[in-house]
Every structure is written in C-alpha cells, then in structure tokens.
Design goal:
Layout (H helix, E strand, L loop, with lengths): L2 H10 L7 H16 L4 E7 L2 E8 L5 E9 L13 E3 L2 E3 L3 H20 L6 E6 L7 H9 L4 E7 L8 E6 L1 E10 L14 H15 L17 E9 L9 E10 L5 H11 L4 E7 L4 E2 L5 H14 L4 E5 L6 H4 L4 E5 L3 E2 L7 E3 H21 L1
Parallel strand pairs: 3-6, 3-7, 7-15, 8-14
Antiparallel strand pairs: 1-2, 2-6, 4-5, 5-17, 8-13, 8-15, 9-11, 9-12, 10-11, 16-17
Length: 369
C-alpha cells in the first residue's frame, strides 16, 4: 500500500470541522481504502453529532489494540489543501494534525488483515476533534461496551523521539458577572459587571500565575495553568455594563482535582460573580514502567536507531475516553511543525517510521498471544 498517495489524497479533501460534504467525502475515501483489506467498516451516525468511521476485524467489542484519531482539520487557505512535497517534508493542512497518521491507521489495518495477525484490532477516526469531539462522545455512548487493552494515539504530533506519558486535564470554566447599569458619567450609581469580573480575575491570578513570552516559562512546566479565552461585557461606551462573562481554559496536572479547583474558585468570586464548569475531563497518566509501553519504546528505539524519552504535555487527547475505560495508551507521533498554522508540515520519513513501528508492534503483540 502506497501511504504517500493516501496522505496526499486525504490532505486534498477540505474536511474542515463542520464541512459536512467534505467530511463525508473523506469518510467514504477511507471506507473504500479500508474495505480492500477485508475489514468490517462502519460509518456511525448520530442525529446530534458528526459521523465517526470505525474499522475492525472482529465483532468482539473488547479489542486487543485500537488506533484512535480524527480526520477533521482547522480552516486554512485553499492552497494548503494542495499537498506539497519538499526536502522530505509533506506540507499541507492536516499533514501533521493528523491525516498522515490516519493513513498509517489504514495501512496498519491492511497489515493485520494480510498477515492474519491474531489480534482483535480496529481504528476509530472522529470528525470534530478540533471543536470538542462530540462525535467521539456520541459514538462511545452508542457502544458502551467498547474497550481496548491498548490504544495507539498518534495525535500528539511534533517529535518522533518523544513518547508522551502524561497529558493534562482540560477544564473550561464560565464566569458570569451581574451588575447594575448606570450612565458612564455617574459610575457611583451602578455596579460595573466588567469591574467585578476583573476583580475576580485578579483573585484567580493570585492562585494561578500568568505566563507569557515576557515572563518566560516556569522552572517546572508540569504545573496548573489558566488563560482568559473569551471576554465579553458591555454594549456601548457610555453605559456601565450590567453583565459580563469570560471563558477560562484551565489545564490541571494529575496532582490537582476538579473539586480542588471549585474550592479555589469559590474563594475568588467578587460580588455578583458566579462560575460554572462547562467542560471537564481527566488527565492521562501512563506508567512509564509498564511492560507493554517499554516494549513499544524498545522497538521504536531499534527502528529509529536512537534513544526515545518520555515527555509531558499540556494539551488534551481524545484517547482519555478509552483510558477511562481501562486502556493503556501509547501516545507517539511523527515529527513536524506548524500544527494549525500556515506552514504545517510533517517529515515523511517519520511517518514511515511510525508506520513501521506500529506494524512491528502489532506483530509482537500477536506473537505473544
């Protein structure tokens, strides 16, 4: 199977999150490529979410190995949907995040089927990961018994010499401030909701410091962080705002809890300000001494011809959904840069190496059964 051609074809499809026609085109392309392996392929649909493509070689819902990923991308200029190969790199929207690795999943399925590996194997590719993964959530509700012993997660792109061992817990918090409107010339006659919101923010900053290019990174970056994602308040310049809101993006390590965050926020609320948890998840923390993970690491080091280290990242991963169901997650991807940016690229050799690591790892697991 020519993986490069599949990557180029996938990049050419403008499967921006929410673009139903192009998403459908991408799903059908993957379906046709995968059916040639002899695997069972389902495009799972839900009235309240976008589709998910589910390929498998078994009817059992307890898999030995599942690959988890997505095929939607963030918006880009039209020229970014024309793949360009230069100096060993593939440029284009989704080259790194993560159509190259959707192609790897297809190739792995062909490998399992052609070699008749004794593994219950499959892959799941969602279509709205870039905007919250409601499609995966709906899919897993539809299949409540679906589990995997091992999940291969290639959606942590950037450096093939790193295996991600920990991901933080993303928690979105909505602040709502209520005030009393008055003319801008007589602020003492009103209560400024914007001001109350800022007072709350100052209190929060005493517990969760700000970081930027100016302040530089903390000595230990494995720490809780928060940033102001969206701020809204006021309607016109000469009226005291009677309502304001803000969306906060917290990233918590495994040492912090949702309940602890709530307790901290309770202490920070200024008069008239309340908070609501809009989204919360769990951190993904993998045992770095796990035998399966170490076997994967050793195999990858052998193929790459160099040592691989573990790293911790602040970003979230969809594999947490199967981690919650008991899966051991291997988070490893290829090398590239520009995720969500104009110059997005992946080093093609690293994609081939991930594919090689993955297929040899699957063979290793099958041989041990």
């Amino acid at each position: 199977m020519e993986i490069l051609e599949i990557i180029k074809d996938l990049i050419s499809i403008k499967s921006v999150t929410g673009n139903a026609d192009e998403i459908e085109k991408c799903l059908n392309y993957i379906r046709q490529k995968t059916l040639k392996s002899g695997a069972d392929v389902i495009i799972s649909r839900d009235e309240k979410a976008s589709p998910v493509i589910f390929a498998k070689n078994t009817d059992d819902m307890h898999f030995d190995v599942l690959i988890l990923g997505h095929i939607d991308v963030v918006p880009a200029k039209d020229e970014m949907f024309i793949p360009v190969i230069k100096d060993g790199k593939i440029y284009g929207r989704g080259a790194l995040d993560m159509k190259s690795f959707a192609a790897v999943a297809i190739k792995s399925m062909h490998y399992v089927m052609e070699n008749k590996l004794n593994l219950k194997f499959g892959f799941i590719l969602s279509t709205d990961e870039e905007q919250g993964s409601a499609s995966l959530e709906a899919f897993l509700k539809k299949y409540p018994d679906l589990k995997a012993d091992i999940v291969l997660d290639n959606d942590v792109g950037g450096d093939i010499t790193k295996i991600v061992a920990r991901c933080k817990n993303p928690i979105y918090v909505r602040l709502t401030a209520k005030g009393k409107s008055a003319h801008g010339s007589t602020p003492w006659e009103g209560i400024d909701a914007n001001e109350q919101l800022f007072l709350t923010w100052q209190n929060i900053r005493k517990l969760y410091p700000a970081y930027s290019l100016d302040t530089k990174a903390p000595e230990n970056t494995w720490t809780d962080t928060v940033h102001f994602a969206i701020i809204q308040g006021g309607h016109t310049s000469n009226i005291i705002a009677d309502e304001a809101s803000a969306l906060l993006d917290f990233r918590l390590t495994e040492k912090s809890s949702l309940e602890g965050l709530k307790q901290n926020l309770e202490k920070c609320m200024a008069k008239g300000v309340t908070f609501e948890i809009e989204l919360s998840s769990i951190p993904v923390v993998v045992d770095e001494k796990n035998d399966v993970l170490l076997a994967y690491k050793a195999l990858a080091e052998d193929i790459l011809g160099q040592k691989i280290s573990f790293e911790y990242i602040g970003g979230a991963t969809d594999s947490r959904a199967l981690y919650e169901r008991g899966a051991m997650v291997v988070m490893h991807s290829g090398t590239g840069e520009g995720m969500h940016a104009d110059g997005e690229y992946v080093v093609f050799k690293s994609v081939e190496q991930i594919s090689d690591i993955q297929t040899k790892f699957l063979s290793l697991l099958a041989a041990k059964k």
